[in-house]
Amino acid sequence: MRELPIVVNDLLNEYIDLVNEYMPNQLEGLYLHGSLALNAFVEGSSDIDFIAVTQSGLTESELKKAKEIHRILADKYQFPEMDGVYLTQNDLGTLCECFYYNNGIMNYGHFLNPVTWWLLKKNGIVIYGDVPVIEINANDLVSYTYENMNTYWANRIQSYEESIDELTQTADSAIDKEVEWTVLGILRQFYTLREKDIISKQGAGEYSLKHLPEKWHPIIVDANNIRRGEENRHYTSKRDRIEETIKLSKYLISQSAAIKNK
Length: 262
What we know:
The chain has ten helices and six strands; from the N terminus they run αβαβαβββαβαααααα. It has a six-stranded mixed sheet. It is of the alpha+beta class. The longest helix is centred in the middle third of the chain and has 25 residues, at about 140-160. It is globular, with a radius of gyration of 20 Å. The two termini are about 35 Å apart. Helix 5 packs antiparallel against helix 10 and helix 8 packs antiparallel against helix 9. The chain has two domains: about 5-130, Beta Polymerase, domain 2 (2-Layer Sandwich); about 140-260. GO terms for molecular function: transferase activity.
């Protein structure tokens, strides 16, 4: 198994012990995807993206126990946060509704997407149980990414445009967070459409500097610097950072069909 950061290893060992104590014989598999699978985990900011496979669906009593397990771990470990789902073997590779733990809250609904399964199939880390068998192909990944760019991201960018004056009144740190999230997030999608694969945020920024026109490089470099915790900015004005983020995003969305069909 791939070597994990010490804090991740410690947390997961405690998680497994707690699950086996609170819900004996339920845990059949525990798998990691996300930044850990991409070797892009950043201590202090990245989450532990997990998939917990249980022998049967969680009962109401077991759901309460799962919430208690996550509460215990969240109280002990401020970082990293756990972020993942509870499934049965039959659910692997599907887009079913499920219980999912996100931002410290247990919910039920649609949380899975083809990115999850692609990463698990190609780069997933087995912590507990057998290697999962996942059925997914590149067309599923690309189709989902194209739709996501033209729905979620398009709507997000439109909301930025409509509230730009309000956004400029927020703190620099908040602007930086939005710039990093948006620029590197949509560049990951650009990479997926071109390469039919998944890359980390930092990797997407570096890739895009080689494959996008130079006019977009300053805002990409700014986003990468924010990700790395560096202070250097090409755009010192909050409005300029927001406007360039919007322009780059709209450009990529407008080009998405052509990129997808290349």
